[in-house]
Amino acid sequence: MTDPKLFQLTDDDKVKYLALIEDIDVNHTTSITKLLGIKLKNILDSGNLNIIEANLINDMALLMGVLEMNPDLPKLIVKKILFAMTYFVDENDEIPDIIPIYGYLDDITVAEWVMNDIKSLIPPISES
Q: Cβ contacts of residue 92 below 8 Å, gap of 6+?
């Protein structure tokens, strides 16, 4: 299996993504999470998951749990979570999702960047 660290965010990427995060409309939370559910179901239905896909599904589940269990999160944290979800849902992001093995490297990197950024600002995330 390939090393997920093959794709790393540059400082320019982070600046670009932070600007996109500002544009996220938290009023679209329901529609974003619905699209996320559809994308996750499609990946699960496809069968054999690789380690990147499995970890990405876990990351998205954790982020979804943070949203559901903490309705009073600061707006910026909600926007960051929704950005990670919308990035994942977008099949034509930095590395198109249809590329075998490598297609989700950018998605998992963005999800982990968001999770690392917000983890000190939210209640502990339960993995059970």
A: none
Kindly give the residue spans of alpha helices, DSSP state H, lying in the chain: 11-23, 29-45, 51-69, 75-89, 105-118
Contact (Cβ atoms closer than 8 angstroms) between residue 31 and residue 88: no
Cβ–Cβ under 8 Å, residues 17 and 83: yes
Structure confidence by residue, pLDDT tens digits, 25-36:
999 999 999 999
Contact 49, 108 (CB under 8 A): no
Question: What is the phi/psi pair of residue 55, to 5°?
Answer: -65, -40
Q: Which residues contact 9 (CB under 8 A, 6 or more apart)?
A: 17, 109, 110, 113
Classify 42 as helix, strand or coil: helix
CA–CA gap between residue 40 and residue 34 (Å, rounded): 10
pLDDT above 90 covers what percent of the chain?
78
